[in-house]
Amino acid sequence: MQNRSPVKPDDARKSRSARRLKNRVVRRRLPLRAGGVSTGNCPPLHRSSGRDVTTGEPGDRLMSDYDTYEVAGAARDEILFRCRRQIDAWGLTMPPVTPIVLQFGLNEFDRFGLVEFWIANEKQAGYCGKFLFLFDGQACPAHRHAKKHETFFVVRGTVRIVVDGRETVKNAGDILPMPPGTEHSFTGRGPALLLEVSSPCLLDDNFFADKRIGANGTI
Ligand SMILES: [Fe+2]
Description:
Blueprint: H1 9-22, H2 73-90, E1 100-102, E2 114-122, E3 127-134, E4 139-144, E5 150-163, E6 166-171, E7 175-178, E8 184-198, E9 207-208
Antiparallel strand pairs: 1-2, 2-3, 3-8, 4-8, 4-9, 5-6, 5-7, 5-8
Bound molecules: fe (ii) ion (FE2).
């Protein structure tokens, strides 16, 4: 009669381990947006353009209403090329939205303008977030808001900010709140990037000191 060799405990453990490896379920990671933020189970709200960010509430208007105040055509392409080159040099990634290249209707983009990357403008939920990019010496003109309450965070560079006539200089890492009714302007000292978090951005709630902008100073 043939002797069958007994299964050793070590061999049994190895066999179970091999089966587990074979049947292992590989957990897929959640997809990442370009900005490195997990989308999780959230609906795809802001896939292509910050201009689409709207709740659709009655009387609501899309960001495309700002087209009048934007740089267009080849000049826009050239500006965005320079902007992205600087952002790449900083090692940053902007959200995957269509940038808004503002010149405020003054057609002097190098002096009065900026590039905005809107992350969200959720009017019903009550929040807004956007990145503001300034070239060296470029200013967002003096303005105030009746409703919008903003807080600025300087991500890169240095900005000169004038608040109700008082000048302050903020560097990367600095925070500056801007309550409604406060007049403010900011100018890049070198290229600069700010994160603006705020209550919703509303048309007709942007009141500029320069009355050539918008409708007698109002956008
Ligand atoms: Fe503002």
